[in-house]
Specification:
7 helices, globular, about 120 residues, mainly alpha, disordered N terminus
């Protein structure tokens, strides 16, 4: 599961345990990083178009690999959004979880992500 990430990756700016990085890679990185793993059905139309639209939109909203290029204000905003969307079960998308069962976050994984993000928000206020 290792991927080469530049110094602008979120894990270089906001240290995290390997367990959280693994959760993010499994549940988030396909749509929110520069390391998308395309499934076998990604070449089938119209699925290809829909999938690509989700990925492009996801990366434009949040790209973990480019987190360091965001302003400090945008980084804080994105960390708050991570907390809110994980708490509200808005991310990962239901449509993504249907085909990627490992992306379904359990209560413990949600708590880990939320606590990690809150800890960095508190430090940067």
């Amino acid at each position: 599961m290792s991927t080469a990430v530049g110094k602008s990756g979120i894990e270089h700016l906001y240290p995290m345990p390997d367990s959280i990085l693994l959760i993010l890679k499994i549940a988030c990185y396909d749509c929110h990083s520069n390391h998308t793993h395309y499934p076998w059905y990604s070449d089938i139309q119209p699925i290809s178009r829909i999938l690509n639209k989700h990925i492009v939109e996801g990366k434009s909203e949040l790209n973990f690999d480019e987190f360091g290029t965001y302003s400090g204000r945008r980084q804080r905003s994105k960390m708050k959004a991570i907390v809110n969307q994980v708490e509200e079960d808005e991310m990962p998308l239901k449509s993504y979880k249907l085909l990627h069962k490992k992306a379904e976050l359990n209560k413990h994984e949600k708590a880990q992500i939320i606590n990690w993000a809150y800890s960095h928000l508190e430090r940067n206020n």
